[in-house]
Amino acid sequence: MPFVRIDIIEGHSEKAICALMEAAHRALVMAFGIPERDRYQVVHEHRRSRVVFQDSGLGITRTDKVVVFTITTRSRSEEAKRVLFEELARRLKEACGIEPSDVIVTCVTNTDADWSFGFGRAQFKTGEL
């Protein structure tokens, strides 16, 4: 946990997708202090005609390298989220050549009772985690 959904426009190579996923994980480890093996990621590829990623009136130019991260997580501080946004943009630029203007992130907060990692148990609540 956190659970990361990554939405991209189809056409990236397997190597590029792996680099994107790794950069995202590194940013989460750094910003949220999560353990190395706390990694839950799913990449969804979409046809170009099936997505619209505009700029909310901010004048941001997007390309077909745009990537949207939806991060479901336990409560995090505003500072931790700010660090995540910056670290993610920096790492994606370095590792994948994705411009910071093409990085969209949203954090969805939930509670310990909302997680089950298997066996039909809520491990945060049972004390297993």
Describe this structure in words.
The protein has 129 residues and is of the alpha/beta class. The chain has a single domain, classed as Macrophage Migration Inhibitory Factor (2-Layer Sandwich), CATH 3.30.429. The chain has three helices and four strands, in the order βαββαβα. It has a four-stranded mixed sheet with strand order 2-1-3-4, covered by helices on one side. α2 (78-96) links the parallel β3 and β4 (103-109). The longest helix is centred in the first third of the chain and has 19 residues, at 14-32. The radius of gyration is 15 Å and the shape is globular.
Brief overview:
The chain is an alpha/beta fold.
How many individual β-strands?
Answer: 4
Radius of gyration: 15 Å
Q: How are the strands of the biggest sheet laid out side by side? A: 2-1-3-4
CATH uppermost class: Alpha Beta
Q: Count up the domains.
A: 1
CATH superfamily name? Answer: Macrophage Migration Inhibitory Factor
Notable characteristics:
Macrophage Migration Inhibitory Factor, alpha/beta, four-stranded mixed sheet, single chain, 129 residues, 33% helix
SSE arrangement:
Layout: E1 3-9, H1 14-32, E2 40-46, E3 67-73, H2 78-96, E4 103-109, H3 123-126
Parallel strand pairs: 1-2, 3-4
Antiparallel strand pairs: 1-3
Helix pairs in contact: 1-2
